[in-house]
Amino acid sequence: MEHSRHLQSRAVNHEHCPNDSTSHGNGHTPRPGARPEGLPYYFQPPPSAQRHAPLAPFTVQILDYGTAPQAQAKQERVTQACSQCRLRKQKCSDIRPCQSCQENNLCCEDADVPPPKQDRMMTQLQKSVKGVSDCLSQLVDQFGEWKARVDSRLPPSRNHEIMSPLGVQASVSIKQELHHVTEESPTERMGLPGNHTTPAHMLLDEWLQMSIFCVGVPYLRSLVDKGLRVSDYPMQLEQDRGLLRIWGIGEGRDSDDGAQGPGSPESSTDSEAPSPAPVRKGLWGYPSSEVLAGTRVPGSTPREYFPPKPRQENGLGADGRPDLRRHVMFDLLRSYLEIMHTFHPFMNENRLRRMFNDFSDQYSPDATPLNAHSPASVHGVKRKRSESNLEGLPSRRGEIERSLCNAIILLVLALGKVCSYKDPLPAPQDDPHPHVRSERGYIRDSPPPKGSFSNFNSNISDENCPKNIDLLPGLAYYAYATDILGNQQGGNTVAHAQAMLLAALFFSQYARVLESWSWISNACRVVLVLIKADYTKLLRVNSERRPTWSSEERYRIDSILYVYWTTLQLESDLLAEMSTLPPSGISRYQSEIMYPEGVNENRSQDEVSNSVRQNDGVSAGFREGLIMKLYSSQSFLRVVLNAAHDALYSPGRCIDFGPTSFNEVANHACTHMETLEGWRKLLTPELVWSDDDYPSTDLNIARVRAKYYGGLYMMLRPYLRIAIHTLNFSPPPSRTTGVTQHSLPSRYGSAAPNRNVQMVDLDEDQRKIIGIVCRCIDAAIRSTIAFDRVGEEPGSQYQYFQLTRRKRLIVTNIFGTLHAQFGNMLVLASVYKSKLYPLLPSDTWLTRANLAALFKRTIAVISEEAQNSPILRMDLEILRNIQEKQGLE
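The line above is the sequence of Zn(2)-C6 fungal-type domain-containing protein; the predicted structure tokens follow.
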């Protein structure tokens, strides 16, 4: 009992000053009365509604002793008294001001009490974090000041201008008036985007009016039935055609060669199942000279087909080897320099000529005999003349060494051979094994040769199945060169990039898209390695420092720059029409890498004349200064067009082609168009032209104009799309309707006597829209006919839309050029059938007669190259389908 009373006394005396408050002035919840040491207790918390009301007394329950009497409840005082009550040692209430301070008219303030130990640790931690944060803020401010000082020293052209690579006149920067073209860091650094919607075949899916153009084309219908899009036909056809069998016959993807054939479930797991027996006279051929019934060991020369006519078009000599006679080699070098080198001068001409001299001295059969110390006595072993060689031919000079230098020479010979071929290029023979072709195969105009798989291997003679190396000009040189390159795929030097570019240009002449792209991709890989190795030296900020470098270093850097800008042009030109191919990423550096030294400097006419006089007969009269200006123009236009592709056609932009986005598209188009016009104003006199001029007779000038008009059309095409599909023209009542064009002749071509022109009062915005639409139509037509007079006399007569060119068109990317013209025809035909067409001015080029003439000439031009490209054959089929349905024959 005494112990019970003792506990009760401790519980009661704990609160010696009764107080009904629950919290003090700072809003903290007061602790309940202190419990007896070692004894738990339970109590019910007060309702929230009674927060500031006096608490009802509560009972402390003694758990250990059930018979203890209840302790008398005491009122609890506040946890912390104010400073005045603490000083006077008075009771304090939780009301502020407290009752004591109110009665004595004192200032009631809470006393500063040292926080508990845990609170002190938290305070110290907060102070430490705040100190670190302040230190970081100072570092950020200092870094910002340093960056501002560095940026102020850099030339503004890298971020706010596009510099023209032309000479003194064109060194003036072309300002960009809208920042969205030049200040979008994430997407601009990517350069040319992948999966953009620029290609011509994408129109068939995106333009609603063109859906009728595909009706009646069986292959396109089969794609849709298989769940594919109509616009997938280029990649499908190009993949289905397979590879060109360099040493063999035709092209294709053979499933019977033992590597690609699908094995049956029974035999796929049988390790003892015999693999397909190789066929000696297979489709892929052999790089051997005389494999006759196994009597000779395969060598390094193909067994050739000997047609009855002299063998002078394919690059093979009478003995079945590449023709390396000295005069033939230098004729082909001249052909290369006059055409391909003018397009892309990434090879040093003087060094190339020295390489040809050395190669001819060593390997030409009619060269001066070499002395005992000649490299020919060291490199390779001379082969004995075979009995098949014709009498009177000079003896061979030994097998060609498998060096990169020799591969470059052979590829230059291949390009020279294909450039000297003026007729339409022949195509590989049809596959003699039609059953191994893909089920989605493509159509050829010529029927397949007679015979079956079995009799091909036994009975078909070479006269019936000529090999590709016998048919295709330049392929013999290409075959030897790529055999060398195949062993040097891991090379990462400038020479490796040059060789790969030459191989890509050769296949591009035959419109073999994927094979050409493969070589371009390899060159891009090498270029990226070269750029990263010398990145700081290649930046444009170092252009002014080049005179301080040694001549060897300047030559080395210029060689890298030439292959970079050539690779950029070739890849961009190809991806512009085949956007499903993945870009390499070299275009992300297009605004940072400087131009080659010969491109930037404006060489005087005396320097050009002296350079020409120093050259021998191979390159006499070569317009070196003009070559650099042309190359500068092509490089600059490529950068501008890549930026336009990204801004207007990139899938990441997601431009809504609705009426609400009209101003956005117009701003983008006008910005890029002003850049293009600024470049044109800076052209030198040799390149200046007027829109009223006839198409140029010079191939290089025509290339520049075609690039300009094609770029202008590409920039304005989204504008035209919105105007046709989404804008609703509601003009005021017309003053005169139904006026025919009998008395309103077109400026160019023929007038359409049955065209109704709506003579209406359009408001200012509508007239502006019609004006831009007309400019887009005009650019599409001019880019289409840009090459129609190439090779003609400058003063010759010309009738618009009449093809007068008498030689095969030779450009860098023949597929891209003709596929773009196909797209121009699709757009023009769509505009002609749109609701917008009656609102066009009376002197528009787009009349029925002119459109029919354009279809006729475009079909004729594409037909020249269609036998080498399944994509172009499908383009022809679509154009003929439109021509028939629209009555444009």
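Note on the example: The beta strands are 161-162, 174-175, 243-244, 251-252, 736-739, 757-759. Residues 243-257+281-381+394-488 form one domain.
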